[in-house]
Design a protein that fits this description.
20% helix, alpha+beta, Neuraminidase, globular, 4-stranded antiparallel sheet
Length: 453
């Protein structure tokens, strides 16, 4: 049985394979830019900032309520036919940014299947074996955005194979061993869109190795342990396409560690458990290319959790079951860089489920209106004099009306309110009359002591 975008638990007649299951690892069951003119303008700028920041805190608190990503569709069923997955099958997933096509590794079926964004089967490549283009336990899948080439980790053959977008074999790298460029258990793979370099997690050797696009070994990071930058079974790996920071799920320590592209440790998040931000089997990981949010599959808790780039918990979706939007061991996650839709390999249900991006559910205007509701329902707002409430209400609704004309490019209320703060400040300082003098004076007087709760 395979571990997520990674390990397999089976053993072949090879002494190195006897070390594939480290102690304690159990196989899974099946911008505001504005120029203040004069002292009054600066004071008003600060006043509006204070008010809107306080509102942002209110919205941020509201935003941490698990809302989930809306279920869109599913594809795949048990079997060995086209578009089907063998038992213990769908284990790795990647999306081609140029086409939106989805590659899914079928672990037991020793193949990679290709689907369009609607889940229609397109093609496949790979057969069982150890020759070029064959597999013995394909797990991780990654697409080079520069040319569409596909990298697949071939677990039991201790190598990474490279194919073109049509599934034609191109090359391979890696051999069995513990030296540089060798593997003891290559699990997941990711491509840096800026350099074309390839990073591979090695679950058995507790490290991440870096190669160039030709398969030449470049560097590695990680050792066995529970300290910062150490691993106890590194499983999946994802890259922020903007910063090239790397996120690695560390299975046994129930955490996700963050590194820069040179392998320097930056931070971590997650502890063992079933509460928000905790994990019981941190497996797959993916990064939203716009917001930088990080999605992590929580295998035994049958959910996917979303965090910001600093590791703060944001939301989750999924429950145990076989229905739409439910999971039986979610194991891998992939994001479409264009639509930001989220694909999840549902391991024991032998299928892939697709969910809408967070932004697709709430436009900036909707996010703003939710904040208005939060504000108007707060005790401190209700205790204010009527002229103060009217000023705040007019300000917020004006912002929301502005946002209503914008494209939904934001994924969190904090971002929506940042634009609102910018828009409000510019309009006030430009003397557009968007706020009356009375409203502006009211806001100035309130700014020093207004904290909504």
């Amino acid at each position: 049985m395979p571990e997520l975008c990674t390990a397999a638990t089976g053993v072949r007649p090879n002494t190195l394979r006897l070390e594939r299951e480290p102690d304690g690892i159990q196989p899974p069951p099946r911008r505001w830019r504005a120029k203040a003119k004069g002292r009054a303008g600066r004071q008003l700028l600060l006043a509006v900032t204070a008010v809107l920041i306080s509102l942002a805190f209110t919205a941020a608190a509201h935003a941490t309520t698990p809302q989930g990503n809306a279920f869109l569709l599913q594809f795949g069923s048990p079997g060995s036919g086209n578009g089907q997955f063998a038992s213990y099958g769908p284990i790795g997933i990647a999306v081609d940014p140029s086409t939106g096509d989805v590659y899914v590794s079928d672990y037991v079926g020793n193949r990679v299947e290709k689907f369009d964004s609607s889940g229609n089967y397109l093609s496949q490549f790979g057969t069982a074996g150890s020759g070029p283009g064959q597999f013995n336990g394909p797990i991780g899948v990654a697409v080079d955005p520069s040319n569409g080439d596909v990298y697949v980790t071939d677990y039991y053959n201790d190598r990474v194979e490279k194919f073109d977008s049509s599934g034609n074999y191109l090359s391979q790298f890696g051999t069995s061993g513990t030296g540089p460029g060798q593997f003891g258990g290559p699990n997941c793979v990711v491509v840096d869109p800026h350099t074309g370099n390839v990073y591979v997690t090695d679950r058995v050797l507790n490290r991440v190795e870096e190669f160039d696009s030709s398969g030449n070994y470049l560097s590695q990071f990680g050792t066995y342990g529970t300290g910062n930058g150490q691993f106890e079974a590194p499983i999946a790996i994802a890259i922020d396409p903007n910063s090239s920071d790397l996120y690695v799920t560390d299975y046994s320590t129930s955490r996700v560690q963050k590194f820069d592209s040179a392998g320097n440790y930056l931070s971590q998040f997650g502890t063992a458990g079933s509460g928000p931000g905790q994990f019981n089997g941190a497996y797959g990981v993916g990064v939203d290319p716009v917001s930088g949010d990080v999605y992590v599959t929580d295998f035994y808790n049958n959910r996917v959790q979303r965090f910001d780039s600093s590791g703060n918990y944001l939301s989750q979706f999924g429950t145990a079951g076989t229905g739409p939007g439910q999971f039986d061991s979610p194991i891998a996650v992939g994001l479409d860089p264009n639509t930001r839709d989220v694909y999840v390999a549902d391991f024991d249900n032998d299928r892939v489920e697709k969910f809408a991006s967070e932004v697709a559910q709430e436009t900036p205007a909707q996010l703003c209106q939710l904040t208005v509701t939060d504000v108007e329902s707060s005790g401190k707002y209700q205790a204010l004099p009527a002229n103060a409430r009217n000023a705040i209400n007019a300000t917020l609704n004006g912002v929301c009306n502005q946002l209503a004309t914008m494209a939904p490019k934001l994924s969190a209320r904090q971002l929506a309110l940042a634009i609102a703060a910018y828009d409000t400040a510019v309009k006030i300082l430009a003397g557009s009359g968007w706020l009356t003098a009375t409203q502006a004076s009211t806001l100035t007087n309130l700014a020093s002591n207004l904290t909504l709760s």
